[in-house]
Amino acid sequence: MADDLHTRYMQASDAWHTHHKGCEPCQTEQRCPTGRQFERFARLQDAYLNRRRST
Q1: At what angle do helices 2-22 and 37-54 cross, to 10 degrees?
Q2: Model's pTM, two decimal places?
Q3: Which of 8, 26, 30, 45 is exposed most, by the fewest CB atoms within 10 A?
Q4: Where does 1-55 have alpha helices with state H?
């Protein structure tokens, strides 16, 4: 489970950063419809970091 969470977190991070580099609205924190993937990245990041704190 932990490895799966880390993998999903890293994939979401990569997807977000790739999108962010080429999207002007997301660079100004306006979030385009595609840029809403930031929310997925943030949720997975929180889950991963909270799991790490509780172990």
Answers
A1: 140
A2: 0.75
A3: 30
A4: 2-22, 24-27, 37-54
